[in-house]
């Protein structure tokens, strides 16, 4: 449904996107993950026809975004970053405008408007000015304008940024409910977000794809973190000696505590194996095991690792 | 159809805030005051002249025309600049809309708002007519001239607004440009007569003045049509520039 080949985008002498290839199958939810400034928004703007690529070919539903710009834009719903809407229009007025511009026939317009406002939970603010809405409601208006014409492809740039936890859950549910019938590409810089909503993930950095994975694969990578935090009630010196003796331990870092419980973060290349051995040892010594927890890998850690492996692999 | 939807959206934005009402009020107050004082002075000191002819010429160009010139930048400054600053231009550019449709909708909506200004000024000939009926046909030319002059100012303002995100820059640059076209022939003493003839072809003032005399001349019609077309063309190119920026 979305097919991107050798996409390059330059701004002056800056290369924002540097040779990106990927494709999204119909009905799939694809995540675009990357730190701020990595080129996510630029890729999305090319897909939505905001500006053409400097090089490469992008097709949506088999149509080239540059040659058939209007036809592509009819098939796309787009939620830009930091949802910007007309503050001086009411929700209903704005969505009516969207429906008209996106070619929904006058006869169906009213029904579709009510439908989309119900789906996005906007019915109670229909008559309010967009400028007076809370961030969460504005985000919903943003999603409503994107989905109003039943687009085949939905492009969502950071759809949950700046929302409170409840609103985030709502929006994610809404996005997931659209998957299957709609092809969705969403960007985020929050790791758990992709594993929760997306089926496949592309990780980009400095305008290049550094990894492509399924959500499960990514989750595995994240859980396969090799850092473990442990709190052990026992004599400090013996505990530390025991830790050094564990299999495949690279590094033990002790955190200062005031309650006399030995708190350490240890890194090993074996993960679960090391944790099992650690637990066995503590039990054998008759100490108290208060906590053993694999530390979730942060986006930064993942990046460091991906970038490193990316550089090690010859291109 | 899509252009109509855009025009309706533009109009909804205009009338959501107090700007239109405040400025129409101020405009009618200023022109109304000048209507009274100018007419008074023509009646008092204009012996031997065709008082009404001269009065209307003077009033249409120097008062209605000039006040419109001052007011237009206040409205055109936001046309594209504000969409760029808010970021809503990203929505418009990714909706199935041609750049030309966006531009025409903005141009026409602004023009419609200014028709209200012109409609307000109908009260002045109506007052005079109530006192002393006259042949109203010259007013067709006067209002056609005012309309074309307005459209020219808006086209120019639309172009300037497409160049910047700052509304202050847009309004001040538009004002300077419009003023330049207005006063370009006011310095008769400094230029040779051949220059002056060339310059007067460029002047919005001179072409509007010819309409205000009650004459519809093809030359003046062509001038305003070219003026509007030229700035709309530039606006379209400016909007399209996002497509070729960053290309190799």
Description:
The complex is a heterodimer of chains A (315) and B (248). With 315 residues, chain A is of the alpha/beta class. Chain A has eleven helices and 14 strands. In chain A, strands 6-7-8-3-9-10 form a six-stranded mixed sheet, with helices on both faces. In chain A, a hairpin with a 2-residue loop joins strand 9 and strand 10. In chain A, 39% of the residues are buried. The mean pLDDT of chain A is 83. The relative contact order of chain B is 0.13. Chain B is globular. Chain B contains twelve helices and no strands. The longest helix of chain B has 27 residues. Chain B is an all-alpha fold. In chain B, helix 3 crosses helix 11 and helix 11 packs antiparallel against helix 12. The interface between A and B is medium-sized, with 36 and 28 residues.
Overall SS class of chain A: alpha/beta
Major sheet description of chain A: 6 strands, mixed
What ranges of chain A have pLDDT less than 50 throughout 5 or more consecutive residues? none
| Largest interface, counted by CB within 8 Å of the partner chain's CB | A-B, 36 and 28 residues
Report the portion of residues of chain B in β strands. under 5%
Report the strand count of chain A: 14
Largest sheet of chain B: none
What's the helix and strand layout?
The complex is a heterodimer of chains A (315) and B (248).
Chain A: E1 2-11, E2 14-24, E3 29-33, H1 40-47, E4 55-60, E5 63-64, H2 69-75, E6 76-79, H3 91-101, H4 106-119, H5 135-147, E7 153-157, H6 165-178, E8 183-188, H7 191-197, E9 200-205, E10 208-214, H8 215-223, E11 227-233, H9 236-244, E12 249-255, E13 262-268, H10 272-285, E14 288-294, H11 299-312
Parallel strand pairs in A: 3-8, 3-9, 6-7, 7-8
Antiparallel strand pairs in A: 1-2, 1-4, 4-5, 9-10, 11-13, 11-14, 12-13
Chain B: H1 2-16, H2 19-45, H3 51-76, H4 81-86, H5 89-94, H6 99-121, H7 123-131, H8 137-161, H9 167-183, H10 193-202, H11 204-212, H12 218-244
């Amino acid at each position: 449904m979305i097919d991107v080949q050798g996409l390059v985008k330059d701004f002056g002498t800056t290369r924002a996107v540097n040779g990106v290839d990927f494709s999204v199958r119909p009905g799939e939810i694809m995540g675009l993950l990357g730190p701020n400034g990595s080129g996510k928004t630029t890729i999305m703007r090319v897909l939505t026809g905001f500006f053409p690529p400097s090089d490469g070919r992008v097709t949506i539903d088999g149509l080239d975004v540059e040659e058939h710009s209007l036809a592509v834009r009819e098939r796309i719903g787009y939620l830009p970053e930091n949802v910007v809407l007309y503050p001086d229009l009411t929700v209903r007025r704005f969505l009516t405008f969207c429906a008209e511009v996106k070619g929904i026939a006058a006869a169906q317009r009213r029904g579709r408007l009510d439908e989309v406002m119900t789906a996005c939970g906007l019915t109670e603010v229909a008559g309010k000015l967009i400028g007076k809405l809370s961030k969460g409601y504005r985000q919903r208006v943003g999603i409503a304008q994107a989905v109003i014409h039943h687009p085949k492809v939905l492009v969502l740039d950071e759809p949950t940024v700046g929302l409170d936890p409840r609103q985030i859950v709502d929006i994610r549910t809404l996005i997931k409910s659209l998957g299957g019938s709609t092809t969705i590409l969403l960007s985020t810089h929050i790791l758990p977000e992709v594993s929760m909503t997306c089926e496949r993930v592309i990780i980009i950095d400095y305008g290049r794809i550094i990894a492509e994975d399924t959500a499960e694969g990514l989750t595995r990578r994240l859980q396969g973190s090799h850092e473990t935090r442990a709190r052990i009630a026992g004599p400090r010196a013996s505990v530390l000696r025991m830790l050094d003796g564990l299999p495949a331990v690279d590094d033990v870092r002790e955190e200062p505590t005031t309650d006399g419980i030995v708190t350490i973060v240890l890194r090993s290349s074996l993960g679960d194996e090391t944790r099992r051995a650690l637990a066995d040892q503590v039990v054998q010594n008759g100490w108290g095991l208060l906590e053993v927890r694999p530390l979730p890998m942060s986006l930064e850690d993942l990046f460091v690792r991906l970038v490193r492996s990316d550089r090690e692999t010859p291109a | 159809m899509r252009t109509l939807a855009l025009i309706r959206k533009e109009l909804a934005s205009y009338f959501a805030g107090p700007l239109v009402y405040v400025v129409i009020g101020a405009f009618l107050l200023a022109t109304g005051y000048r209507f009274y004082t100018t007419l008074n002075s023509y009646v008092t000191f204009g012996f031997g002249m065709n008082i009404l002819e001269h009065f209307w010429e003077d009033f249409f160009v120097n008062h209605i025309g000039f006040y419109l010139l001052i007011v237009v930048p206040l409205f055109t400054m936001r046309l594209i600049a504000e969409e760029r600053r808010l970021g809503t231009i990203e929505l418009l550019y990714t909706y199935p809309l041609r750049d030309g449709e966006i531009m025409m909708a903005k141009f026409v909506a602004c023009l419609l708002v200014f028709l209200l200004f012109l409609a307000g000024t109908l009260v002045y000939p109506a007052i005079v007519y109530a006192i002393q009926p006259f042949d109203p046909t010259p007013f067709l030319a006067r209002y056609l001239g005012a309309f074309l002059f307005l459209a020219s100012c808006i086209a120019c303002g639309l172009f300037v607004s497409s160049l910047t995100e700052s509304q202050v820059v847009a309004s001040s640059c538009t004002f300077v440009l419009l003023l330049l076209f207005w006063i370009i022939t006011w310095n008769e003493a400094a230029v040779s007569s051949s220059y002056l003839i060339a310059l007067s072809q460029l002047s919005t003032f001179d072409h509007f003045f010819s309409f205000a005399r009650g004459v519809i001349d093809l030359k003046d019609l062509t001038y305003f049509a070219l003026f509007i077309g030229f700035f709309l063309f530039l606006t379209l190119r400016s909007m399209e520039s996002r497509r070729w920026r960053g290309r190799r």
